[in-house]
């Protein structure tokens, strides 16, 4: 094969073949440099010069295309022949084989794909072979050079130590995709992050992106409602709530006439793909539009509104759905964009209401949004420790639910609780589908229990405001996938819906998701509540059970037989993290419901050594869900300070199960306790560890408690810093974040705040990297409008380098930025532990806590049963199995226990971190969405323009 050629001459034997070849090569990215007739000859000797500009990474390729009637054309190759075995005229290296496939599919060209494994088995490269219209075999490869194993394609797989690079399109495709993006239906926080990511990622992929203002109304009205977006247009949008391109409820789009007009507007703007961010109504509309598209096109053509040529060109409309909805009411995705922020607002309100309720000993009935979906109500109930929740999918089982509710409220009051909080979803019903309304509940509480009861309807505050970190990240990663889905789409593929399952962004059929969503409402209307619960995400039922098990003081139905009741110790280890108290509260309450004795160990292992152990009661942990820090007290001391004394205290207090809540120190402690079992029988009890650390470095879990709280604290601080930087002058802030030897916080906060770049321990810092970053900042500032002072931030993980400290980097930037920009530092320090824990951390804590109590029961049960059968005393040694010393983790949507010894294989003990880091796949996006590569591609554009003019 003629690898490495940079110039070829191709002959066409007819004018038709010449034109077809010209079109083909333009479609795969070549640009016409000159197109001429040889002066003194007739039209039968046309020549065109075509060039493919390789930019900085690749050689330029030129083709001299010649019309030469004397040339005898090649015999056409049969499609069954392996093209790779034939003489290949041209090899084109590109990062975007997907684009190549799209072009070839769209132009109906047969192609063959070969996936080739590298000799060291580490990489796959791909080659695509096709025939040009002249019958020449040409190949596309994603190898940087024919002789190297380096791939151009950037992969989302995890790297360790090697900075992943993002290759921007090295080919500029002739058929630039034009993508329209709109937000529709009820607004939700994160919609702006969607538009920003679609615009920026789309541009980086060589597409043109158009914002369609005012949802479908803008599509129907056209004109100035459809605006081409530039990179700069979406600056600062991550932090802005609602949707800056507007949304509307559009009746016209529900009519065929309206959709006909919308189709005409799309075509007249050259838009061939649409990304719609909205709720199930908007996405239903999107799917109707796509299904109708061929008919609409036909009518537009027949009535002369669209020419034959355009009709041919716009035969297929690509539609991709993103779910923006605060209710989390869409099936096929675990969570929708905006739901978490809405939950933040609800929890803030309920927390505030709780303090006044407590002061006045009042009852509050709080109505939250959710017509067919109880997600917000249930999650708010869990996160705030509400006494009762009413949701549409799971109505109270009893006919006289009012009596049950009063009984629960009465029992709680009887224990000394001064407040009663009941959360009702807007669409809550009883099992006969009669609405359960807040006012009615209020009347019951007032009349039957004599409680001073108030109703609060939260209303539009729930629409959110500035998006939470989770929504910004979700919206960004999903929108990147939406653009990828546009680029992958073929006429045959059904419209996709971008979702998230098991903590991974997914792409599934849109219509199926819409159907399933409607099925929930239908199941409720048919009183098939089991089906309604089933159609929700898998965590929903789990969380409902956890709520019931831990919130409502039991009437003894959950209680275990006496011989299985245990004494369970709870201990906090390491630095404080949001959710530690929430976990402890749930352990205590669920344990009490099961008949166990929960024992709080104060002040970590030193407390255990001193015997600072106290029985915790139902009321003693009241209100702990919303408290930050550690109520029990926490520190880094390890048990091996005096393992003998640890064993002694466990035996003395007859502790039969131990739950550690903490970070990497807790993990190390568990390892040591497990090792010491050999020597000390009193350690042969079930032991588990709930990871709680802002660094997210504990192996065996995707998320530790506290990470979400911390991300929100960082995001809030960074928003304020950017605002300050922008207000005063052109300034770059180097913001130092925590994380130990793990870059999780920097990567995720970088994505959520739109940081310019990040320095993380996984990559380190080098002088050349700093130089490139300085240059990039200079480029960005030079490109800013002169009258604007932009603020930018760089996040640096505290341990990334001893040499390039936060101050050193700041000084380098200051010096090198000359008078173009200034630099400052901000060390966030302990602020990152957050004040009040975020709802996500509280909910995760509740779920894990219930599972841990179940874990302790499970691993003790065999020993108890044996003792019971032998009528002997409760044994001291309950278990020696390695599985009974485990870390509990959130893995995707599941909760899993992994033995601490098994986790050693995925632990980097020296750097105190997990070797698995799913979040590292987000790393390249930080740089890409902040504009790295923007100037390279602009230079390429300019170069191409100069050459062609
Ligand atoms: P959401 O997207 O938040 O569920 P709506 O149900 O109000 O909000 O839908 C938003 C918009 O989507 C509607 O105003 C309408 O323009 C469009 N839409 C909804 N359903 C359909 C449908 N069946 N056919 C066409 N358009 C629809």
Structure description:
This protein has 26 helices and 32 strands. The chain has 949 residues and is α/β, with parallel strands linked by helices. The protein folds into five domains: 8-154, 2,3-Dihydroxybiphenyl 1,2-Dioxygenase, domain 1; 178-335 and 467-519, Rossmann fold; 340-463, Rossmann fold (3-Layer(aba) Sandwich), CATH 3.40.50.460; 551-705 and 838-911, 3-Layer(aba) Sandwich (Rossmann fold), CATH 3.40.50; 713-835 and 923-930, Rossmann fold (3-Layer(aba) Sandwich). The strands form seven sheets. Strands 11-10-9-12-13-18-19 form a seven-stranded mixed sheet, with helices on both faces. It has a seven-stranded mixed sheet with strand order 22-21-20-23-24-29-30, with helices on both faces. Strands 1-4-3-2 form a four-stranded mixed sheet. A hairpin with a 2-residue loop joins strand 29 (885-891) and strand 30. The longest helix is centred in the last third of the chain and has 31 residues, at 839-869. The two termini are 34 Å apart. Mean pLDDT is 88; it is low at 1-5 and 146-174. Residues 184-186, 216, 249-250, 253-254, 278-282, 284-285, 288, 325 line the site of adenosine-5'-diphosphate.
